[in-house]
Design brief:
Strand content: 15-25%
Largest sheet: 2 strands, antiparallel
Radius of gyration: 15 Å
Helix content: 40-55%
């Protein structure tokens, strides 16, 4: 898999940028996640004890 396919870049809206600035005091234009990080956030796997 090529490097550009290993990460996903999500560009933020102006409202999202303001929320990040308010919460952290830092500015951000986008969020970059690896495929694995994105999968964990979308469908977290929980281990259920048997």
């Amino acid at each position: 898999m090529a490097d550009e396919k290993k990460h996903l870049r999500i560009n933020l809206t102006d409202e999202q940028k303001n929320q990040i600035r308010t919460a952290t005091g830092k500015s951000a234009e986008a969020i970059e996640l690896s495929v694995e990080e994105l999968e964990q956030r979308i469908a977290p796997r929980t281990v259920v004890p048997s």
